[in-house]
Design brief:
Layout (H helix, E strand, L loop, with lengths): L58 E7 L6 E6 L4 E5 L4 H13 L7 E10 L16 E9 L4 E6 L11 H12 L10 E6 L3 E6 L20 H6 L3 E4 L3 E4 L13 H10 L6 E2 H11 L4 H9 L5 H19 L2
Parallel strand pairs: 1-4
Antiparallel strand pairs: 1-2, 2-3, 3-5, 4-5, 6-7, 7-8, 9-10, 10-11
Helix pairs in contact: 1-6, 2-5, 5-7, 6-7
Length: 324
């Protein structure tokens, strides 16, 4: 059974919604959001890929992926499905984040956390060294399903894209504050096209989440205690709301001007959000049950104590949105 969102609603510059059959035409406009349907019925244990797509069976090493900062490699299962395997501190936060964003109607990767994974023909990697036992056993892996027929056509900017000013993009901006994602670089945003399925915009790297935002000294990711102590709503006016997100580098690193300016600009992603758009997102997220929220973090392999900290913090932030 595949728990995919029902009754898709495609957002464009000119059209707020289209019927589901619009996904089947080659002229389908780009989308940044789709109607998730009955939010309270979504299965957040398995997330956007559903139980039907969960990794299972035997896996064989294909190649190492040297992009980004994490140890990554591709594997293939016995059914011919390819997966991107990722190791390191981002694997749990990214898995949880995909489920929460998907529940709000946003496009995400099909991510699964696997506590133990055995990979045949697993070599010593150039990055990460020996990460497996002699029989190919790996502990703690995030597997991202490579969707057949889907192609990446480029990256997109938070400040220049077809959806600027829409409640759907502004909702995504709020979600970045909701999960404390401090790495909002353009390279982490992808434009994807599926054969017969239109084009969608997504945040494709959500690993720098669920910790504390800040400079390279103070920031963290996948840290429940840090996440639980941070603030969410920063400032509210009659028409707009600002959310907390700190990404400006330590002042002594300002000599690296391009990086300093880019990181500082990221803070604007969660500023000047129309109140009406924040309330719209709050009405979507309030439909999630406490157990659904917990499932986001259980599925990511967090401990029972971490699950409770994360879930209670997310619930408080949803309450804050609905109290604006």
């Amino acid at each position: 059974m595949n728990f995919l969102p029902k009754s898709p609603c495609i957002v464009t510059v000119l059209i707020c919604s289209l019927p589901a059959f619009a996904f089947q035409t080659s002229t389908t406009p780009a989308a940044v959001w789709r109607d998730p349907g009955n939010v309270g019925s979504l299965n957040l244990v398995y997330g956007p890929g559903g139980e039907a797509h969960k990794p299972d069976g035997k896996f064989t090493f294909v190649k190492e992926d040297k992009e980004g900062s994490s140890t990554k490699f591709e594997i293939v299962d016995e059914n011919g499905v390819r997966w991107k395997a990722k190791l390191g501190e981002e694997i749990k936060s990214e898995t949880a984040a995909t489920r929460l964003l998907w529940a709000a109607g946003y496009f995400t990767d099909e991510d699964y956390y696997v506590a133990e994974l055995r990979v045949a023909k697993m070599p010593k990697l150039d990055r990460g060294g020996t990460v497996t036992s002699a029989d190919g056993l790996i502990h703690g892996v995030r597997l991202e399903r490579i969707v057949a027929g889907q192609k990446k056509s480029g990256n997109w900017s938070w400040f220049k894209n077809p959806f600027v000013g829409t409640k759907e993009l502004n909702g995504l901006r709020i979600m970045m504050a909701m999960i404390n994602n401090w790495d909002l670089k353009e390279v982490n945003n992808g434009i994807y096209t599926r054969k017969g399925g239109g084009t969608h915009y997504a945040v494709t790297d959500l690993g720098a989440s669920f910790g504390e935002t800040g400079d390279y000294i103070t920031r963290s990711k996948s840290n429940a205690e840090d996440y639980g102590k941070t603030k969410f709503v920063q400032k509210v006016t009659a028409k707009q709301v600002d959310f907390y997100l700190s990404s400006r580098p330590f002042v002594l690193t300002a000599v690296a001007v391009p990086n300093y300016l880019t990181r500082t600009k990221m803070q604007d992603v969660v500023k000047d959000i129309p109140l009406a758009h924040a309330k719209w997102l709050g009405k979507l997220l309030v439909q999630l049950s406490d157990e659904q929220i917990r499932d986001c973090f259980r599925a990511a392999g967090y401990s029972a104590n971490e699950v409770e900290i994360y879930a209670s913090t997310v619930k408080e932030r949803i309450t804050d949105l609905n109290s604006l």
